[in-house]
Specification:
mainly beta; Porin
């Protein structure tokens, strides 16, 4: 009986030790990642010419503004290799001109279809020398051989201590 118990004990120990043996290659599949600041081979850098549709949200009301803007957006690297988005010469639906706004750094991550970009910064937009504090957010994709940009730009613009206007700019353009 003791011999049988000893046999079962050895059999259990052997089975337990074999459960942790695995077959195959333990190495993970290779991942294709790109430096999120530089973007894939710098091909995102360009001036994109296209159109912008604007949605405005104010005091719990939102509306689509029918004005379509012809617009240039530039993506370029600075001397440190950070990708910057510049939206040139922004004018809102009332005709108020704010000039250029910049979002830096922009992250560019390769996807199966192109490049996903995103970025956020706090800055001031200017008119007649006055600063308007704004949160600037961009996200979207640049796809295809023609480098087609499909971007959403959100501008949360403080026009007074009690009021913030939220502009959503839907941008579509092609690299020039």
């Amino acid at each position: 009986m003791k011999r049988m118990n000893h046999f079962y004990l050895v059999l259990i120990a052997l089975c337990t030790s074999l459960t942790f043996i695995t077959c195959g290659n333990d190495e993970n599949e290779p991942t294709f990642t790109i430096d999120p600041i530089l973007g894939p081979d710098g091909w995102v850098e360009a001036t994109y010419l296209g159109t912008t549709l604007t949605d405005l949200e104010s005091r719990n009301m939102s509306m689509r503004i029918d004005t379509t803007y012809n617009q240039a957006i530039t993506l370029e690297k600075d001397s440190l290799g950070q990708l910057t988005l510049t939206y040139h010469d922004w004018t809102d639906h009332t005709g108020m001109h704010y000039g250029d706004f910049h979002i830096v750094p922009v992250r560019a991550i390769t996807t199966t279809e192109g490049v996903a970009i995103s970025g956020e910064c706090t800055d001031s937009l200017y008119k007649a020398g006055q600063g308007y504090p704004a949160t600037l957010i961009v996200e979207g994709n640049i796809n295809g051989e023609q480098r087609e940009a499909n971007l959403t730009l959100n501008i949360h613009l403080a026009v007074s201590p009690a009021m913030t206007l939220k502009f959503t700019l839907s941008y579509e353009g092609i690299a020039n």
